[in-house]
Amino acid sequence: MSEFFSNIGKIPYEGKDSTNPLAFKYYNPDEVIGGKTMKEQLKFALSWWHTMGGDGTDMFGCGTTDKTWGESEPEARAKAKVDAAFEIMDKLSIDYFCFHDRDLSPEYGSLAETNEKFDAIVDYIAEKMAADPSKKLLWGTAKCFDHPRFMHGAGTSPSADVFAYSAAQIKKAIDATVKLGGKGYVFWGGREGYETLLNTNMGLELDNMARLMKMAVEYARSIGYTGDFYIEPKPKEPTKHQYDFDTATVLGFLRKYGLDKDFKMNIEANHATLAQHTFQHELRVARENGAFGSIDANQGDTLLGWDTDQFPTNVYEAALCMYEVLKAGGFTNGGLNFDSKARRGSFTPEDIFHSYIAGMDTFALGLRIADKLISDGRIDKFVEERYASWTTGIGKDIIDGKVGMAELEKYALEKGEVTESLSSGRQEMLEAVLNNIMFNL
């Protein structure tokens, strides 16, 4: 087996004063932050689709990066991707990876042949994992969105035949996830949505999506899968309206169909941007509803209206993300998957490493800031004091269920004007506290 990146060694941690572009400045895997090592807190994962297959193609131009890995035949290329991926993970000290089934192995002439070739690659990955037990599968998923058969959706297709094909493909992806010891399986509704309601039976489509998810859960549990199922919210692109618009929408769907005990959220930063939410908002909604699971780590561009999937470099956003993760008790089965791609003009093999170093350092710095933000206590104390009226008197009576509308009317009539009970939200002061902590590490 040849080395794909012979000019790049193991990426070291050299500290914040280093100017070496191939060294970590903030990510020190064994350093303990918040009671766990950075490696345990962050659980970084390589994304197979962008890292091993993304060649810079966009809607305006062909690829700029060679991702053939020296092979012209699809079977040989799929195997070379595995070798290259494990080399990348080893040199970057990344323990996890994620995949769509067709990223590991492409489609062939029939579903039976495609499954056979896919199984062979899964077996090869299993061999690599056995040789290096530190490498683990974070989650798997099925790519039910790019082939023409999925033009109208997969689980929400108007064609029952497409639904059946989708179920077969998802079954095989679940088999692979279980075989490789994955603790997560993701539903990303690539085309589960609509372009116009003039041709759409929304009720049937949502019912069918729920049917497919229930089947998947029942099958996975029947073969011994004990991990999490995730839904990845996304508001638009490729369809005008995705049924998994945002975390709140997905929670409503899960509760309607009795799936909320089985599914958690895989939150992506760029999808939050497209939904006109902040990344922190989506994480907070998931956390407050007991549905926080995993994260697709990237960032978008607010000046562009599509999913740019940039490697994350926004430290402010990463800090608020990790604040939510720590407040949720940290990751369990989930982690930080870099659903990110190097820019089209960053086309050399070294750019893969520069990109991951930038993203990993950003989240390592975010973790440091979030931990200090919590241990500092000023923000938590302010929030606690701001809502203190709910711990005594009429506020406590409301929460304890001791009063109703009539009692509250009587209280309000006796109390009179209540504006004096309000206090300043101190937003600017709190933002200054965050800046103070960020720039005094």
Global Rg: 24 Å
Straight-line distance between termini: 43 Å
Query: What would you call the shape?
Result: globular
| SS element count, helices | 16
Class by helix and strand content?
alpha/beta
Main β-sheet: number of strands, strand sense, barrel status?
8 strands, parallel
Mean pLDDT value: 96
User: Helix amount, in percent?
Assistant: 40-55%
Strand content: 5-15%
* Low-confidence segments: none
Task: Please count the beta strands (DSSP E, at least 2 residues each).
Answer: 12
Strand order of the largest sheet: 5-4-3-12-11-10-8-6
Order of helices and strands: EEHEHHEHHEHEEHEEHEHHEHEHHHHH
Describe the protein in words:
- The protein is α/β, with parallel strands linked by helices.
- The protein has helices at residues 38-42, 48-53, 74-92, 101-104, 111-131, 160-179, 202-222, 247-256, 269-274, 279-288, 315-327, 349-376, 378-386, 393-399, 405-415, 427-438; strands at residues 32-33, 36-37, 44-47, 96-100, 136-141, 184-187, 193-194, 228-231, 241-242, 263-268, 292-296, 336-337.
- Helix 10 (279-288) packs parallel to helix 11 (315-327).
- The two termini are 43 Å apart.
